[in-house]
Amino acid sequence: MTGKSAAASATVYGYPRQGPSRELKKAVEGYWKGSVSDGALRDTAAGLRRANWLQLRQDGVQEVPTGDFSYYDHVLDTSVMVGAIPARYRAGIAADALDGYFAMARGTRDVAPLEMTKWFDTNYHYLVPELGPDTVFAADSATQVGAVGEALALGLTARPVLLGPITFLLLSKPAPGVADGFEPLTLLERLLPVYAGVLADLRSAGAEWVQLDEPALVQDRSRDELDAVAHAYRELGASAGRPRLLIASYFDRLGEALPVLASAPVEGLAMDFTGPAAANLGDLAAMGGVPGKRLVAGVVDGRNVWINDLQKSLHTLDTLVPLAHRVDVAPSCSLLHVPLDLGAERDIDPQTARWLAFARQKTSETVTLARGLVLGAQAIAGELALNRADLASRAGSALTNDPAVRARTAAVTSAGTRRSLPYPERAAAQRARLGLPLLPTTTIGSFPQTDELRADRADLRAGRIGTDVYEQRIEAEIRSVVAFQERAGIDVLVHGEPERSDMVQYFAEQLTGFSATRHGWVQSYGTRYVRPPILAGDVSRPGPMTVRWTAYAQSLTDRPVKGMLTGPVTVLAWSFVRDDQPLEDTARQVALALRDEVDDLERSGSPVIQMDEPALRETLPLRTADRPRYLAWATEAFRLATGGARADTQIHTHMCYAEFGDILQAINDLDADVISLEAARSHMRVADELAAAGYPREVGPGVYDIHSPRVPGSDELIRMLHKGLGAIAAERLWVNPDCGLKTRGWPEVRESLENMVTAARSVRSALPEGTH
Ligand code: GLN
Ligand code: ZN
């Protein structure tokens, strides 16, 4: 029986910004192109904010977030709000605030943009604030104040949601040119008065509560950092004319930061009680709760697409009621991370659709839970019964319980996750089979995705061309990609991935267990939105997925063609993954499907197979204590997918970032024969790191950065190769770009790869006798 809480209400911390038809993307990109005016862009934005608030009100939320909207990124907005504008943008901003803002986001001909990086362990990317000892903060609350006014005018309660000062500083990096060792957190003293000023402005504008998001507190924090938290909220708590403060955290448990926040002189805490953050419940109870405070309980998972277990959440809420002055209900984090509305979908099979909840549906779940908390479970008996039936249909569905898949995963043994021979013997067999020169050249897989290819795909989807015509065009593209690589003298060829628009979606579309959405857009960064596949059921592979194209490419050449697959961890990371079984079980299912693909590629004659795992590091748990377990199952899934390969089949993998320090052991545990990595921007630092760690296998540290159209000269590439050789023996060094070439144009790709082959040949010919 549910105990009643007098005041409970439902709220959210943020809502998808783009609009039902990605109106924001169209308006912003139109503005960049000059086809949408400044005024029209502002009107579209105001209309979207208003529509979201009215939707929230209609769905039962009275206290709405403001300030969660952004033209590009909310961390960038925070930089603007506190006046942390790097010098190189100031003139632009003075000339035109909006253009200056977009210059920080995207750069211009004259200035480089801010760096972009992942927002915690989500697939959202933010612009990294740049700070230095000379940074002068200044409050600019106009945007925030304006949004409060807009929401109040609709008769709503406006709760501005700002990025908190601690997280803002912890997410910042030293500006270019600032001496190493500068700690942005040392600027806290200067930043606090600026936050206090913004808070007072918001109070004057009519905001009774302001939410300060501090997700950085769910990561491991030092004693000094925790002291800074205590200090910050002591100061802000004592600041004049301030609103009531709600400090929010999400994505994981607060741990040692919980008592610090609990004793801070603020009126409320918003905490996540889902996933790994469920541990917050026990921690909060153990310390006797936060008796004088408002507690906003994030019980509806804000970053996946599954329906809530309402009964279970209600139970959590009941447990929380005696632990706080008042308990409100919310999704665990901003709904920015999920698609807008399941109601817009037509093609998801109705069985699966019952198990899904997007932002709108999650809002309704939150409202239902708040009602249950106030009025008792019997008041929401109908919703609870429906929810129970939906959950039961999911648990009992043939889609989530494929006996063949279950039997196969249960039968996995550790022998299945090992290659048949140890690396040195494999390497010898591969050398004999492939007959490659020293410093072999290759690419990472994709070649330019041309406008023609995109048009072909659109034509196929719209039914303007048939599958046969489409496949002929793909084959023609493969012919030209193979011909180019032969002409350029590349040693290990690829087919170029012309048939894939996305390296995960392509596989999701062919595997059983996945659903695709039509409108399920989620912001990745700025105006870039992705539609992650939904991994809802047991995963199996009805038939080969890539063999047709790889085998075709191999039929055109005597040189080895590298088969190209996406690894299990990356498939999971870039999908919405079922939450009704451990991730590692799902990873194993995907791995077994990929293992069959490896087998089929091998049979069709592929001597080299690459399995990309660019997401291995991005899904690292936020708390270091949780990492070894994750890395154990993640690397095991990769080995399960590749372990069945013959000893003389060369298995490659690829990752695209330069910070490997914390996963060197995991890279080693993949047991891939060759790994290619991003290295150009960090001047081959990873080669040194791998060498220092005694990495025993072959490595291709990228010799040039594919993120820009700049063509590297062969002299520069020769220098990079010498750097690589300084760390890695010639027998184990590969020559390749940093990443796939799909975003590049053909002219620069041709020239860059020709220069790369020239460089490899030149360095090769100068190698001392006897190196091989
Ligand atoms: N094979 C993929 C490509 O070349 C790898 C891309 C990636 O790692 N992000 O496009
Ligand atoms: Zn890459």
Query: Which stretches of 5+ consecutive residues score pLDDT under 50?
Result: none
Strands, count: 21
Cofactors, ions, other ligands: glutamine, zinc ion
Radius of gyration from CA coordinates: 27 Å
Task: Give the termini separation.
Answer: 75 Å
Structural class: alpha/beta
The outline comes out as globular
Please give the order of strands in the largest beta sheet: 1-5-7-8-9-10-11
**Average residue pLDDT:** 96
Report strand %: 5-15%
Helix content: 40-55%
Largest sheet: 7 strands, parallel
Q: Total helix count?
A: 28
Structural features, described:
It contains 28 helices and 21 strands. It is an alpha/beta fold. A hairpin with a 2-residue loop joins strand 13 and strand 14. The radius of gyration is 27 Å and the shape is globular. The structure holds glutamine (GLN) and zinc ion. The site of glutamine has 13 residues, from loops.
Quickly describe the structure.
This protein is of the alpha/beta class. It is 43% helix and 13% strand.
Task: Give me the secondary-structure topology.
Layout: H1 23-33, H2 38-58, E1 63-66, H3 74-81, H4 87-95, H5 97-106, E2 116-118, E3 125-127, E4 130-131, H6 142-153, E5 157-163, H7 165-171, E6 173-174, H8 188-205, E7 209-213, H9 223-237, E8 244-248, H10 257-262, E9 268-272, H11 279-286, E10 290-300, H12 310-320, E11 324-331, H13 350-353, H14 359-375, H15 381-395, H16 403-410, H17 423-434, H18 451-462, H19 467-488, H20 505-508, E12 512-515, E13 522-525, E14 528-530, E15 534-540, H21 547-555, E16 562-566, H22 568-573, E17 576-577, H23 583-603, E18 608-612, H24 627-642, E19 650-655, H25 664-669, E20 674-677, H26 685-692, E21 698-701, H27 714-727, H28 746-765
The chain binds glutamine and zinc ion.
Residues 444-446, 497, 503, 564, 612, 614, 654, 656, 739-740, 742 line the site of glutamine.
